[in-house]
Structures are given as C-alpha cells and as structure tokens.
Input
Amino acid sequence: MLFDYSKITTISLLILFTSCQPETAGPCTFEQALHGQAPYPLGFAADVAAFRFDPDYQNHSSFHFNSITAENALKMEHIQPARGGFEFVQADSLVNLALRKGMRVHGHTLIWHNQNPPWLSTFSGDRQAWIDLMKEHINTVIQHFSGRIHSWDVVNEAFEDNGDLRETVWRNGIGDDYIELAFQFAAEADPDAMLFYNDYNLWRKSAKCRAVLALAEHLQKKGIPIQGIGFQGHIDIRGPGQREIELALEELSALGLQVHISELDVSVNPLGKASPDLEGNFGKQAEVYRMVAEAYTSSVPADQQFGITFWGLADAHSWIPSFFNRADAPLLWDANYMPKPALCGFMDGI
Ligand code: XIL
Output
C-alpha cells in the first residue's frame, strides 16, 4: 500500500508531525517529504527497474528524496561488460528519469575491487596497459554523464580495516599510486565534477579512518583534486556511539572537503539470528538513526554537508537480506512503505 500524497493537507501534516515520537518505539506516522526537513540533500540507492517501472517505488522515492545513487547500474560490470564495450542504456534511463524528477545524481563507482566484469580478472598487460585501461574507463564514463552527474565516488573501499591498502586488480596492475592516478584522470575528464573517496568503517577513529585522512592530505599536497569523502555508514543497532561518529566526522571535515554519508543503513539483526525479533529492535534502530543525523549536523560544517544517502528505499529493497543471507529491516520504511520508528528517529536528529 502506498500513500496518496495528494490527499495530505497542511492540518494533517501538522498532526502527523507532532505525533512523531521517536523516543518511544511507538508508531511513527510521519508522512511529509523527508528531503524538505533537512538543510542538505537526502538520497537513496536505487534499483533501475523498480525506479522506472514500479509506480509505488517511483512515487515514494521521488516524494521523499532529492538525491539518488544508482545501487549497481554504474559499476564496471554493468557499464563495461565487454572490453571496450560500454553499455549505458540502464544507467542512462535511471539518470534521465532522476533528473526529470529534480533529483541530484551521485555517481557510484568508478574504481573498485568488486563487481568488476569477468574479463578484467584475466586482463594481462604491463603497468602502462593497466593505466591506459583505467584511464579509458574513467574518461568514457565520466564524459558520457558530464553535465548530468556532477559527483563521483572515484575510488571505493581501497583500504583494509587495519589501514593497509587492499589488494585489488587495479593495485596489482598499476601499483600503489593507482588511487591518485584515478583522481587525476577523473579531474581531467570533467574538471567540474566533484570527486569523492568512499569507504566503510570510518566511524571510529580507526586505522582505516587515519589511512583515508592521510590519502586525502597526500592528494591535497600533490595538488590532485579531491572534493569529498564518503562515509558509507553500514552500521547496526550496537553502535558506534555518537561521540565516535562525531570524532570521525570532525576529523575528516577538518580537511575542508565535502562529507557524504553515502550508504546509510542500520541493521537490526547484525548477528544473523535465524528467528530474530526484528521489530523488538526498532526502538534501538531509531536511536542510532537519530544519533547519525545529530552527529552529522553538529560535526560537519553546513557548507561541507554534501548530504546523507540511504542504501535502499524501503526494507523490501535492502541489499542486506540477500547479500548476507539473513532476515533484516535496516531502512526507514517497512516493506509496505509504512514509516518505522527509524524514520521519526532520523527526523528527530536532523
Ligand atoms: C551492494 C549492492 O547494494 C548490492 O545490490 C550488490 O549485490 C552488492 O553491492 N558497499 C558499496 C556498495 O560500496 O556498492 C555495495 O552495494 C554495498 C557495500
């Protein structure tokens, strides 16, 4: 069931707004457009087919969000499935529809160790051949979307949790400087694009967080453009705590870059229990969403708030159940697009 947004009157909005009580895990009935509540853009990761062809999905997402990230459609396995054979049809349809709906489109992702086409793992060549290959991919994709996609996760997840560089096909082929080369090529391809480094587990002042700080400083010192850091934010009801989130956000903000919470979801079944009490954890989940929103506001200066993007639209679309093979409900709305306490918790933190 989907709301008939046209029937929402100002008075009912007022009643709904005042009835939003996130501290209790009671019913959350907030129905205003979510993006209108935040001073920064709010986005979601979209499935192309659902966004194009499922009217409920399309209406709900375009009502609540003013930013969008393709969940998979811009990843290399979809964009360059055959060597030199670029396939833009799916991504184009998502991007064009999103722009018609007035959304900002964030590009995810150019260089990553996952979701690469099979041919990439058998590609053989010397360092220069790998550099040429990376440059061709980055150039072709960025230039294709130039003027439509203004920001990109240029490199995704390049570090291990201990701060070491992850072993990837790109690092093996090119060497440790593949990251700076990727940013350089991206900037050359579209000097107006905003270029992000994106990773997970950056919350605590972790070794990985320090490695990302060092990378950004290194790029800045060498004059290689980088405009932002993406904190993915796949977290769960156990935390991290608000102060830990704030410290990491403050430290990265000190670089003067844009800060994007780029893939937010809060698992209610992190241990993968076979018969979990998902709803029993909705209150805790609301509290974590509240903390993240509050930390973002208090720790990231207004002009560096690129926005917050949720990794999926409603619980039925989350990647977690299928990817980790467990029941879960990590997003703001349930499978029927009914608001969860999480939605009110998030609203309360903004
Ligand atoms: C996930 C997608 O949501 C899934 O549909 C896909 O099967 C695997 O990738 N970090 C990222 C995202 O940067 O691209 C991942 O997205 C989730 C983790």
About this structure: The first strand starts at residue 42 and ends at 46. Strands lie at 42-46, 67-70, 104-111, 151-156, 194-199, 228-231, 234-236, 258-267, 305-310. The mean pLDDT is 92.
